Amino acid sequence: METKKFDIGVIVGRFQVDKLHEGHVLLIESVIREHKRVVIFLGVSSTLNTKNNPLDFVARKEMILQQFPQLNVMPIPDFPSDLDWSKEMDKRIRECCPVGSVVLYGSRKSFVDYYHGVFETKVLEPKDSPSGTEVRLEVSREVKASPDFRAGVIFAAYNQYAKVYPTVDVAIIDGEKVLLGKKSNQDKFRFPGGFSDPSDDTYEMAAKREAFEETGLEIGDIEYVGSAKMDDWRYRSEEDKIITLFFKSKFTFGNAVATDDLEELKWFDLNELREEDIVNEHQRLLKMLLNNLKK
Questions:
Q1: Among 142, 158, 174, which residue terminates a domain?
Q2: Spatial separation of the C-alpha atoms in residues 219 and 73, rounded to whole Å
Q3: Residues 6+ apart with CB under 8 A from 202
Q4: Are residues 189 and 276 part of one domain?
Q5: What is the pLDDT of residue 185?
Q6: Model pTM score
């Protein structure tokens, strides 16, 4: 019997796919051929149900064991520090494999460049194998008419943290007047605003962007007024909620034109503006603005 140079082969990866593709199978089989014992460590993110990490540890473990029941599949959590992650990796390897020489395997874009532990590493790159990102994108494009598909969607919805969606609203002020907008399905006015976007570097930038998108106006001297949970009808029965960051600003340039989801814009005299003119969820913002201006 041929003696193996390394007793234990450790595969480190994420396997964030709906099923093992041919490249995964070939990689695992090649490691099995070279070692007496094979362990797979699956990276576990601290985030839940994201595009990069949609599957939890158990789902991925079961996927692998269905095809390779003889393997040991273990979790390895993400760490902010590569050094700390490497130490934890080495510790967990020795917890499940106290004796024997070890080599770690990964793909070219995997953990190898970030590992600073004591074991040797090798890069395996199966030919013509799609990336996990490509696989997930393709899977996301198809709705399947099966109970398992619907059950998976429900599982994903429940297995995530309750979220707060940050929005921005902005009072655009010109002298003694403030600009308000009205949506097509409402008979009262509101402050222009909307959801903050991942492309926004700051909430002030989000306020400036939303003001321009909804009114066509440039604004300046943006100042934070306060924040408030919004009684948004879309989220009244949901665990997730909206909290808005409210700003005041000065009109600097442009012609006010209702765009985006606003149907009408109107300048109101701040001294004559009444709560009855404002949609219920923004009446609290009006009070915050008036108190701020008094100061």
A1: 158
A2: 56
A3: none
A4: yes
A5: 86
A6: 0.84
Would you state the structure tokens that stand for residue 291, as one six-digit string?
């108190």
> How many whole angstroms separate alpha carbon 283 and alpha carbon 271?
15
Tokens in use for 279? 């949609």
3-state secondary structure the chain: CCCCCCCEEEEEECCCCCCCCHHHHHHHHHHHHHCCEEEEEEEECCCCCCCCCCCCHHHHHHHHHHHCCCCEEEEEECCCCHHHHHHHHHHHHHHHCCCCCEEEEECCCCCHHHCCCCCEEEECCCCCCCCHHHHHHHHHCCCCCCHHHHHHHHHHHHCCCCCEEEEEEEEEEECCEEEEEECCCCCCEECCEEECCCCCCCHHHHHHHHHHHHHCCEEEEEEEEEEEEECCHHHCCCCCEEEEEEEEEEEEECCCCCCCCCCEEEEEECCCCCHHHECHHHHHHHHHHHHHHHC
**Does residue 168 share a domain with residue 130?**
no
Output the pLDDT for position 6: 76
Residues 118 and 150 in one domain: yes
Structural domain of residue 143, as residue ranges?
Answer: 8-158
- CATH number of the domain that 179 lies in? 3.90.79.10
Question: Does residue 1 fall inside a structural domain?
Answer: no
List pLDDT tens digits, range 69-96.
Answer: 999 999 999 999 999 999 999 999 999 9
